[in-house]
């Protein structure tokens, strides 16, 4: 294996067995080693349906079978030790803490509210902050844009800026996090979602990683929208850096 690939994707419901198969197959096509999923729409009792031979390990938080739900899937080729999991009872985030060859990682899948709710981000980062000494990787649909100029293309005359965006950016600054895709494409407009209601293209889906990983990033991509109405976002860490970071990736 030449790299470690992390994919974040709002899958917009996995209640259908046929759609679950399509999503899992596409994650395999994208060569995802760690997949961070949002809007799984799976009840607690149905969460195990996401596990498969390629992704046998899954951590999730559920709300109900009609809304929310997040998950972290780990490829069979990644060797790690699980320490603990934090699950949101409202099904908006799951945080796992794992050790890979004695190096600690805090990995989260997050689904933000589609209203301006700063309290959600306070709650999430409070849960995350106890592991702030670990290398952090957050993937998810935060339902807001970080840069209104580059992350949004709209025909609407007015677009208000949410207070939640300022709160999120402040936490990113406090914890030393960066937008992996934007770090690789500093002046490019890239969008992960189209809203026919608001006639706008937006980047709502992000991979936020510790600044310490910046020099290790080989590439970051927004992939085509298929299966879901959101595009998958990925970040790839080169093989040399995974060795430096202590990854033990089996072929």
From TrEMBL:
Gene Ontology biological process terms, A to Z: DNA repair
Cofactor binding note of this UniProt entry: Probably binds two magnesium or manganese ions per subunit.
Residues with site note (Transition state stabilizer): 143
Binding, Mg(2+): 10, 39, 141, 143, 229-230
Domain of life, source organism: Eukaryota
Substrates-to-products reaction catalysed: Exonucleolytic cleavage in the 3'- to 5'-direction to yield nucleoside 5'-phosphates
Keyword entries, A-Z: DNA damage, DNA repair, Hydrolase, Magnesium, Manganese, Metal-binding
Site label Important for catalytic activity, positions: 205
Cofactor: Mg(2+); Mn(2+)
Active site: 111, 141, 230
Site for Interaction with DNA substrate, residues: 230
Domain Endonuclease/exonuclease/phosphatase, residue spans: 7-230
EC number(s) recorded for this UniProt protein: 3.1.11.2
InterPro entries per UniProt: AP_endonuc_1 (IPR004808), Endo/exonu/phosph_ase_sf (IPR036691), Endo/exonuclease/phosphatase (IPR005135)
Molecular functions per Gene Ontology: double-stranded DNA 3'-5' DNA exonuclease activity; metal ion binding
Gene3D superfamilies to which the protein is assigned, alphabetical: Endonuclease/exonuclease/phosphatase
Family, similarity comment: Belongs to the DNA repair enzymes AP/ExoA family.
Name the UniProt record assigns to this protein: exodeoxyribonuclease III
Species per Swiss-Prot/TrEMBL record: Oryzias latipes (Japanese rice fish)
């Amino acid at each position: 294996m030449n790299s470690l690939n992390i994919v974040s994707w709002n899958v917009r419901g996995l209640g259908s067995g046929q759609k679950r198969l399509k999503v899992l197959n596409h994650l395999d096509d994208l060569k995802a080693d760690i997949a961070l999923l949002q809007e799984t729409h799976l009840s607690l009792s149905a969460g195990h349906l996401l596990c498969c031979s390629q992704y046998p390990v899954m951590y999730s938080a559920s709300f109900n079978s009609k809304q929310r739900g997040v998950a972290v899937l780990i490829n069979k080729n990644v060797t790690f030790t699980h320490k603990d999991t934090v699950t949101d009872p409202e099904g908006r985030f799951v945080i796992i803490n794992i050790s890979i060859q004695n190096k600690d990682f805090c990995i989260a899948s997050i689904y933000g509210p589609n209203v301006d709710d700063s309290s959600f981000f306070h709650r999430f980062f409070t849960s995350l902050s106890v592991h702030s000494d670990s290398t952090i990787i957050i993937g998810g649909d935060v339902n807001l844009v970080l840069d209104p100029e580059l992350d949004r293309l709209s025909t609407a005359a007015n677009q208000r800026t949410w207070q939640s965006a300022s709160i999120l950016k402040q936490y990113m600054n406090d914890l030393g996090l960066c937008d992996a895709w934007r770090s690789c494409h500093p002046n490019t407009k890239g969008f992960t979602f189209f809203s026919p209601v608001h006639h706008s293209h937006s980047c709502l889906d992000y991979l936020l990683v510790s600044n310490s990983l910046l020099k290790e990033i080989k590439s970051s991509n927004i992939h085509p929208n298929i299966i879901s109405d959101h595009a998958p976002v990925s970040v790839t860490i080169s093989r040399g850096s995974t060795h430096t970071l202590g990854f033990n990736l089996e072929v």
